[in-house]
Design a protein that fits this description.
mainly beta
């Protein structure tokens, strides 16, 4: 019985943590380096049909000494980034990556309806392969 209660509490905490707001029901973001490519995968689901939903921005920075330099980006109106009048959007956007180079990738997802817009941002540090 104790095990079942602990398992139930774990599932409930996970579901609450991933539920972002009144606009965003759940989202997931990952960045995976493969040979010569950085794969930025995102998915976002609205609580209902949203006016607009998807990935607001992807910013790719390359480490140069001790500083980060912006080398590529995409915005919400670029192809594959967002959709209108839907409750879900997911995609994988690819960026060029170089083996051994350190990258910082900042990804922001959003959902927008008549009540407003909400966003969630995650930042990843990866090394190109």
């Amino acid at each position: 019985l104790v095990f079942i209660c602990m398992f139930t509490l774990t599932i409930s905490a996970y579901a609450i943590e991933n539920r972002a707001s009144d606009q965003i029901a759940v989202y997931d973001i990952s960045v995976t380096p493969t040979s010569g490519t950085l794969n930025v995968k995102f998915s976002v689901s609205g609580t209902n049909i949203m006016d607009k939903l998807g990935c607001e921005s992807i910013m790719v920075y390359e480490k140069s000494g001790t500083r980060w330099t912006l080398v590529d980006s995409m915005e919400e109106n670029d192809p594959g980034m967002s959709r209108y009048n839907t409750n879900a959007q997911k995609n994988t956007i690819q960026f060029d990556g170089e083996s051994g180079v350190e990258y910082k990738v900042s990804v922001t997802v959003f959902a927008e309806n008549s009540a407003g817009r909400d966003t969630r941002t995650e930042t990843f540090y990866v090394t190109g392969r």
